[in-house]
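Researcher: Next entry in the queue.
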Amino acid sequence: MSTLLCCVAAVGLHLASYHSNPGFNNLNPGVYVVTKDGWTVGTYRNSEYRQSFYGGLTVQGDLMARTSVSLTVGGITGYKSENLLPLAVPSLKYMVTDQIGARVAFVPRHEKGGTATTHLMLEYKV
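Model: Structure for this entry, 126 residues:
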């Protein structure tokens, strides 16, 4: 167990979303883990009321004190349109305390009839 924890940089909770179009699920509970090398895996209840699983790489850069910008790229499951979709999600994180951050992700609309999404997460720095 301690070997695994040495590699983990952050553990996060998916919370809720705002969608640009009506009819989508705004309550998106889930969890994710980011390693010190940026590898990211997670799961959440998606906008289509289905369970999604994703994995990829997150790169992060500091903007100013307590604020950073990130981009997560990889793949995601759980959507009706495809079994596996590409994932490219930019986000901003503000560290509320030295260990707890609030992250807001911006998911662009990826298909006609879809929705753009703003998603809220809480993150614990290990």
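Model: The domain at 2-125 is CATH 2.40.160.20 (Porin).
Researcher: Noted, moving on.
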